[in-house]
Amino acid sequence: MNSEGLQKRLKEFAYRIVPLCEALPPKKVSKVIEDQLMRSAFSAAANYRAACKAQSKKAFSSKLSIAFEEIDESLFWLEAISDLKLVKEHNLLLLIREADELTRILAASRKTTQSKLKS
Asked: Which distant-in-sequence residues (6+ apart) come within 8 Å of 101 by Cβ?
């Protein structure tokens, strides 16, 4: 997958988080999760976009690492929603799968980038 495709995929993931957050029940824990999930999902997309526009390999690596951490955090919050049974499981399955795939893609990219910086 090229960088433009991954940018689009991360952005679409963030947009798909919005209706999920709006469907959370009106509980105190839901508000905490909603805020954190929205921030992390959009931050992952924004930081990967910034990585693609970075002016150095070091800057690229830094922004890529942040994008990885944010998408992994998004996965955590989706798992929390599932574990706490805040919405029906079928509403989460595709988002959890996508977050997991994006986490793996960014982890592999980060590993490759870091090994190139060391050599």
From this structure: none
